[in-house]
TrEMBL record:
Source organism of the structure: Asparagus officinalis
DEAD-box RNA helicase Q domain boundaries: 755-783
Boundaries of every Helicase C-terminal domain copy: 966-1126
Protein name as annotated: Uncharacterized protein
Domain (CoA carboxyltransferase C-terminal) ranges: 142-396
SUPFAM superfamilies hit by this protein: ClpP/crotonase, P-loop containing nucleoside triphosphate hydrolases
Length: 1129
């Protein structure tokens, strides 16, 4: 509150002063009379004149003092040191919009719940089928296809109220989400120049494809806190005045204007009305029709009333597929007309608020598509659709001159609605029929019935295992599908014309009756066509669906033939065998039961049994059946010399055991055991005595001496005995070492100090595994890390991808494990499931001669199986942090004896996603644990972790440059629609052993894999949304060379080691350098040569330049011809 102090003083020394509020009020008692009203509210004019006349030293003196309350100090938004090089293109100093720390929680809309329940039931059926071991693959695939059809049907026929719920979805992308996706550069601008900045409307300048635009839009929050801050996207008058200021700036500088509408309406509180809400909206409406620049508006959510129209008077208005635009919300309309908001669905239908209805009424100029399920399912794709639509509209509008542009905008709104004067017209005939709605009740009911049938069959399968039952309808459907697959295969192989030509000749041939054979020329032509077809079909990884169906049909035919033979044989046996067979078999059965009970048969009974057997054999022979049930099993006989040696060795072993029994004094224990067994002692007592005797024998038995005696008895060389070969100087000659790798290698792995694995004094059994794995000598990272890790020091190691980091920590881990202690001694943490499986396999291969048990555990696998496995001995545990922490908290995974913690791909593990789990996991380890960190990059988060948990680590840095020396990198500028054609060209020109093709989204992975298969190339695909078993199978098959090309997301960027991959193709260019580095590192593994090809669109050019600068590498433009020597020497 402001205050004013008046001090009136007379020269004689009398004075009076008083402090008043927001106005001056001189009291009657002071001035002696009631003062008339004046601009000074009670100060008499002649008195003021007298004050003026008093002038200098005598008379009255009037002092005026104002006290003003201190205003709140605002923080200065600019930092002290501004980096002029903006990496992302978005200037974030003036923006309060930051990435969310937590992922938004999934929200299921009410009309989606039936399908969600069905999806859960299908998953339950799949689990039940896995538990029973029955094969319901076809039925489950059929259910899933029906589910997808029901989902598509639902979203194709959404009601207006359902589209409204999608438009209000909490996870729907906001204005700033789209802006950051579609702009190359972006600067947010604030304020209405009257002291206010409404957060519900965001304005700023941005560029798309090098052209500058003014962006204005409503901004909702992404969570409750942001919604409160943004006032739920409902602007006040300050927001509309801010928008008007920016529009005038754009008009002055010639920037086209793009506005985004997403608001329930203008904020309708008393304060806003007092500040002129209606006046601000009206002023914007009038001003927008006079702007001389193109204006395009996009409704991305809900557009309510004048609050939306205040920034929506544009030349063109586009709406998202699931957006709405209304004069009043359906709930408000229902409350006015039907006195209840429950009638909102009816009001939504009558208001015509959807994009299709508004396009029909010519209010909207176009509809921007959304992915199935709404924009929140794939925000990036949705933003690109907005970008394409807006840029196309702007190109059209920018060609108009100023007068045409203004006239275009005026006519758009003047043509809304319509009337006709002067001539009568016939009334429009309408049918009072309700529009079709998406009724998925019948579809869901059918799916539920089939699910229940499958569940019942699975439950019955637990008690019995019926043979395969294949209906005739299923066989016919299989044949039809096979015909379609064959036709498609002939077309893709380019053999369709030859096939049609052969059919034409067969139809014209006179010898086309069933009783006549083909002519030699036709037969030769048909054989040649089939030979070519089989040759194309035999290529690895090609036409997998067709091969599977051919195999299924072959098995079905075999089953049919077996069934026919079995029925015929059964009929013949029933006809030819006499009734007396039943009596004979009963006699044999009784004799067998008596023998089983320990009874003896007399001579007459034995003769009778033999006679019956002979009679039965004769009967079966008469039916042309071979009798095999009475033959004795023929076992392979041992050579007489070996049999004699084994007998002598057995005697030696028994003699040594007898000596050990005498030395330990165990004869009395053995007698006691015999007595207890004779007296029928309990199982626990007998087992206790047996264990005591066994332990006594082992303690007094010299195993080394026994091995030597057995070896001398068998006359074997000493190195051929079990365990004795480790002491032979020629132990390497006995190993199964793979042939040496003669491919060219770069100095990334060849620039070593000349050390050998034997220089580190490793266990002989571990050395055997190392050499049989194909390792000849340590790589640079292995030379640096293995000896340091064996000393027990903490390690922070940084080395390039594909230089042997996995073996660098697996070898010391296996060396330090005590095989006699059945506890977890080493834990290896990795960020992905595939990397966990790969690392555990490397540990098993290196330690296959050791008695070390390795286990892998990751999320997405059976927790029950992991718990059961941990009850068995485990020495080395490989897994993802979340799963290991979960098992540890349950008390199943005990880490009190774990002396070594290894973190592979540490930069990813120490991100916000994993770091909390890892820090909790460390608290379960002993205080003297050893921590090893390995990665190609170390961000700032690693330093913080090192300071807290690695006080004095040994630091290894072998990164003179980030990318591998053997990888040649190229880029090719293409349009989005030309990418598949470009990929086909690369396949035809490059010498590819195996290739990995990266995409930026799951949908693009599946679509691209389908396109590659249609082009005739073998192709697998893998992404994070696949079932874990399916992912494991694809990874295993691709690693074993079953397919040449693999399309994947960034799931495959970290640590995956497939030596045969020599080409990596970035079909979608990555957005950051770290992802790019890990992607191209999948080729050129372990010093070999590789090739990375990047398909760059116009939007990717800034990312290309930035990644080159950050990595310090050169990505060249692809030449017309690529020398094979640079990637497959």
């Amino acid at each position: 509150m402001n205050s004013l102090i008046l001090t009136a003083a007379i020269s004689g020394g009398e004075s009076c002063s008083f402090v008043l509020g927001s106005h001056i009020n001189l009291r009657k008692e002071v001035f002696g009379a009631e003062l008339p009203r004046s601009p000074f509210r009670g100060i008499r004019g002649d008195w003021l004149k007298s004050l003026k006349r008093s002038g200098g030293g005598s008379g009255y003196r009037l002092n005026v003092t104002a006290r003003i309350k201190k205003a709140q100090k605002h923080e200065y938004p600019w930092p002290d040191n501004i980096d002029p090089n903006i990496e992302s293109g978005h200037l974030s100093y003036l923006s309060h919009f930051k990435p969310l720390k937590e992922k938004p929680k999934p929200v299921t809309l009410p009309f989606e719940k039936p399908l969600l329940d069905l999806e859960k039931k299908i998953i339950d059926v799949r689990k039940m089928a896995n538990e029973t071991g029955l094969d319901f693959t076809d039925q489950i695939n059929l259910l899933e296809s029906k589910y997808q059809e029901a989902l598509k049907e639902l979203y194709t026929h959404l009601t207006p109220i359902q589209r409204l719920t999608i438009a209000r979805h909490p996870n729907r992308p906001t204005f700033l989400d789209h802006i950051l996706n579609i702009t190359d550069k972006w600067v947010e601008l604030h304020g209405d120049r009257a002291g206010y900045d409404d957060p519900a409307i965001v304005t700023g300048i941005g560029s798309i494809d090098g052209k500058t635009y003014m962006f204005i839009g409503h901004q909702k929050g992404r969570n409750t806190k942001e919604n409160i801050q943004r006032n739920f996207g409902m602007p006040t008058p300050h927001g509309y005045r801010k928008a008007l200021r920016m529009m005038r700036y754009a008009d002055h500088h010639g920037f086209p204007i793009i506005t985004f509408i997403d608001t329930p309406g203008a904020f309708a509180d008393l304060k806003s009305e007092e500040l002129g809400q209606g006046e601000a909206i009206a002023y914007n409406l009038r001003a927008m029709f006079g702007l001389k620049v193109p204006i395009v508006t996009v409704v991305i959510g809900e557009g309510g009333s004048g609050g939306a129209l205040a920034i929506g008077c544009a030349n063109k208005l586009f709406m998202m597929d699931n957006s709405v635009f209304y004069v009043a919300s359906p709930e408000a309309c229902a409350a006015i007309l039907w006195k209840s908001s429950q009638a909102a669905p009816k009001a939504a239908e009558k208001l015509k608020i959807t994009a299709n209805e508004l396009c029909r009424l010519k209010i909207a100029d176009g509809i921007i598509p959304e992915p199935l399920g709404g924009a929140h399912t794939d925000p990036a794709w949705t933003s690109q659709q907005i970008k394409l639509t807006v840029t196309k509209a702007m190109e059209e509008l920018c060609e108009m001159d100023t007068d045409s542009l203004l006239n275009h905008r005026h006519l758009k709104f003047r043509n809304l609605g319509g009337f006709l004067e002067g001539s009568p017209i016939e009334p429009e005939k309408k049918r009072n029929m309700k529009k079709k709605e998406a009724d998925i009740s019948q579809a869901t009911a059918d799916i539920e019935v089939e699910i229940e049938k499958l569940k019942k069959a699975a439950l019955e399968g637990k008690s019995q295992s019926p043979g395969p039952v294949i209906s005739n309808e299923a066989v016919e459907k299989l044949k039809q599908d096979l015909d379609k697959e064959m036709t498609n295969a002939f077309i893709s192989m380019g053999l369709q014309e030859k096939l049609e030509s052969l059919k034409m000749e067969l139809s014209k041939s006179p010898s086309n009756s069933p009783d006549q054979s083909l002519s030699p020329a036709l037969k030769e032509k048909a054989d040649r066509l089939m030979q070519e077809f089989k040759h194309n079909l035999s290529r690895p990884g090609s036409y997998l669906g067709l091969k599977q169906k051919l195999q299924m049909l072959s098995e079905v035919n075999k089953l049919g033939e077996h069934k026919i033979k079995a029925e015929r044989l059964k009929s013949e046996i029933n006809q030819k065998l006499h009734e007396q067979v039943k009596g004979k078999t009963e006699i044999l059965k009784m004799a067998r039961d008596r023998v089983a009970k320990g009874e003896k048969l007399n001579e007459d009974e034995i003769k009778e049994v033999n006679m019956i057997q002979e009679e039965l054999k004769e009967m079966l022979k008469s039916l042309n059946l071979e009798v095999v049930g009475l033959r004795k099993k023929i076992l392979p006989t041992k050579p007489p010399v070996l049999e004699e040696k084994l007998t002598k060795a057995d005697e030696v072993i028994k003699m040594e055991i007898a000596k050990a029994i005498d030395a330990a004094g165990l004869n009395s224990k053995i007698d006691e055991l015999k007595t207890e067994i004779a007296n029928g002692a309990s199982k626990e007592t007998v087992e206790k005595l047996i264990n005591e005797i066994r332990e006594g024998i082992i303690a007094n038995l010299d195993s080394a001496q026994l091995k030597e005696k057995v070896a001398s008895t068998l006359e074997l060389p000493l190195q051929e005995t079990v365990g004795a070969g480790n002491h032979s100087p020629d132990w390497k000659s006995q190993l199964k070492i793979p042939p040496p790798d003669t491919r060219y290698r770069t100095e990334d792995v060849t620039a070593t100090k000349g050390n050998e694995f034997e220089d580190y004094f490793l266990k002989r059994e571990l050395l055997m595994g190392i050499y049989e794995k194909g390792f000849e000598r340590p790589s640079p990272i292995q030379e640096e890390s293995i000896p340091i890790a064996l000393t027990g020091s903490d390690i922070l190691a940084r080395a390039k991808n594909g230089t042997g980091k996995t073996a660098a920590f697996c070898i010391p881990a296996l060396e330090k494990i005590d095989q006699d202690k059945n506890v977890i001694q080493v834990v290896i943490l990795v960020p992905t499931r595939e990397l966990a499986l790969q690392t555990s396999q490397v540990c098993k291969e290196l330690g296959k001669h050791l008695k070390i048990q390795v286990m892998a555990t990751t999320g997405g696998t059976s927790l029950k199986d992991d718990i059961m496995r941990l009850y068995q001995p485990v020495h080395l545990l490989v897994g993802t942090p979340g799963r290991i922490l979960d098992l540890t908290k349950k008390g199943v995974c005990v880490l009190k004896d774990c002396s070594m913690l290894i973190m592979d791909e540490a930069d990813k593990l120490l991100s916000h996603e994993f770091q909390p789990s890892i820090e909790q996991l460390i608290h379960f380890l002993p205080s003297n644990r050893q921590i090893l960190l390995f990665s190609a990059t170390f961000p700032v988060t690693v330093k913080d972790f090192k300071d807290r948990y690695l006080p004095k680590p040994y630091i290894i840095n072998l990164m003179d440059e980030l990318t591998l020396k053997g990888i040649t990198q190229y880029y090719a500028f293409v349009e989005e629609r030309q990418k598949v054609h470009c990929l086909n060209t690369l396949f035809s020109k490059l010498q590819i052993n195996q290739s990995i093709i990266f995409c930026n989204s799951v949908n693009r992975v599946e679509l691209l894999a389908k396109k590659i298969t249609e082009l005739g190339y073998s192709c697998f695909y893998i992404h994070a949304k696949m079932l874990q078993d399916h992912r494991n199978r694809v990874f295993h098959d691709f690693r074993n060379g079953a397919c040449r090309n693999l399309v994947c997301t960034d799931l495959f960027t970290r640590g995956i080691d497939i030596q045969a991959v020599n080409v990596v193709i970035n079909f979608d260019f990555p957005k950051n350098s770290e992802t790019y580095l890990h992607r191209v590192g999948r080729s050129g593994r372990y010093g070999h040569l590789g090739l990375a090809v990047n398909l760059i669109t116009y939007e990717d050019r800034f990312n290309l330049y930035r990644i080159e600068q950050e990595l310090g590498t050169e990505i060249k433009q692809i030449p017309p011809q690529i020398d094979q020597a640079i990637y497959c020497r």
